Amino acid sequence: MSLNDLKSALPGYAKDLKLNLGSVIGNSDLPQQQLWGTVLACAIASRSPKVLAELEPEARENLTPEAYTAAKAAASVMAMNNVFYRTRHLLSDPEYGNLRAGLRMNVIGNPGVDKTDFELWSLAVSAINGCGMCLDSHEQILRKADVDRETVQEAVKIASVLQAVGATLDAEAVIAQA
């Protein structure tokens, strides 16, 4: 299983996705750990069994055990945080913002890898999950750590393409069963 298998699985009408998938992963300027951590966290966040099954082995091969675990942790903790903070933001009563969250998220403070990498993965997952508060928070932390906008955008491009690939392949699987 591989990136090439995932590209081959895409239907003809999704040619742009196939090209973008090859570009955002195959031609990325991100360092290996940032790239494959972003890919793994986003594959998990996409909720697509096919995307995860095809990309997880390559991610595991290209990441240290610590980075592999941290990327999974970013997807996990952001799945919780994105729902919580997005809801806080969307509720019309601003007093919810003054209440203590009371949710454990220790991994953010001690992810086991470079904090910048973990923040990048958290930002990418937040893009998939659509949490503006989390996007702003992680982007600000990354920018304060001198991460350039191009790197931030690269992670968001990976997130958007993997989400679209997952949606397309999952829809095709349902259509094929009909």
UniProtKB/TrEMBL annotation:
Disulfide bonds join C131-C134. Keywords: Antioxidant, Disulfide bond, Oxidoreductase, Peroxidase, Redox-active center. It catalyses: N(6)-[(R)-dihydrolipoyl]-L-lysyl-[lipoyl-carrier protein] + a hydroperoxide = N(6)-[(R)-lipoyl]-L-lysyl-[lipoyl-carrier protein] + an alcohol + H2O. The keyword Disulfide bond applies. One of its GO terms (biological process) is cell redox homeostasis. Gene3D superfamilies: AhpD-like. GO terms for molecular function: disulfide oxidoreductase activity; hydroperoxide reductase activity; peroxiredoxin activity. Transmembrane segments: none annotated. The active site is at C131, C134. Residues 94-175 form the Carboxymuconolactone decarboxylase-like domain. Its EC number is 1.11.1.28. Belongs to the AhpD family. Antioxidant protein with alkyl hydroperoxidase activity. Required for the reduction of the AhpC active site cysteine residues and for the regeneration of the AhpC enzyme activity. NCBIfam families: ahpD, ahpD_dom. Homotrimer. This is Alkyl hydroperoxide reductase AhpD. It comes from Streptomyces chumphonensis.
